Amino acid sequence: MDFTDKVAAYANALDSDIGAERFQQVRNSELWRGWMGTIYGCGVGTKNGYAFDTKAEAVENARIMRDQCREIRRNTNDERNAL
Description:
Blueprint: H1 3-11, E1 18-27, E2 30-39, E3 42-43, H2 55-82
Antiparallel strand pairs: 1-2, 2-3
Helix pairs in contact: 1-2
């Protein structure tokens, strides 16, 4: 799957396709537990990051990712229509 296919898939994600998963990582020699937003079960990140303290923040970040993909698709379609 190339970048264009991923953008199209994420842009088409429904709210029910968006979620969050718990994960752990070592930060400053300590175990940190947090949340990562997911689309179709795959972790996603934006300029806001990929790791969040709450599930709600992680889900919102995944929604932002979907919206960014929708905007990319809109711009791509607008460029094609202008030709």
